[in-house]
Amino acid sequence: MSQSQTTVAVAGLSDSPFSLLDLGVDPLGQIDLMTVLLEPGHWIVWGLLFCAMAGLCVYVARRLQDSLRARRARLADAGRQDGRELAPTAAGPLTARSMARLYDGDQTFAEYAPLLIGLAASAVWPWLMERWPLVAQALALVAVIGVLSAVMRGRRSAGQITQSWSLGFFAGWVWLSGCAALARFLQDQTGASATTCTILAILVCAGGTFAIQLHLGRNTGFSVAVIWGLIAIAAATIFVNAVFATVAVLCIAYIALGLVRATT
After folding, report:
1. Residue 10 pLDDT exceeds 80
2. Exposed (0-12), middle (13-18) or buried (19+): which is 4, by Cβ within 10 Å?
3. How confident is the model at residue 6 (pLDDT cuts 50, 70, 90)?
């Protein structure tokens, strides 16, 4: 009877507007990161998911725009009939041929392969976690490596390599999802408590984010997405398990330190 009253009392905290128990936290304080990130139960995580998908769409739109520009440049160059070799770009304004040469190599499979492989893996592994956890974890790792490789390589357009903030934000969500898969995998394979596995995954997430952000420099989208996800975790557990909330807040501060260091 006492246990039942305690459960009801803890569950009653969900009446607070700041309590997000529907994110994937049970009344005993256990948290499932995969449920938090892949089965959104609150507008905070829905917002993160929406912005991640929007970031990917923005990146795809820009790549399509680059492809259209390259096609127009090649068509303009093919329309020349005299066949003369044009002066280099430094000798005057851009010409059709010089512009077409700038886009050479931009629209190749090798340029898109890491991102495409990462997207395919990230779309498959959540469905395999229950029945084939080893395969799911391997695909989650492939997804993280593929998307992060695309972010670190940068966006190549007309001979210029720039960092994509929108793709960086999407990569942050993929990184969070990969860390959630790690927590579930450790719990299933080692038999350790959910608390231990979740905290370990959060620490790995924070440490990896710090290192990756130093490499990305001023492309802050990656860290912003991770911080957003950690805020959701802290909010989900603040009333039922202070350990999770404390670790998440400390990791946010650590990532913010790396963010400041990378941008200054």
Report:
1. no
2. exposed
3. very low
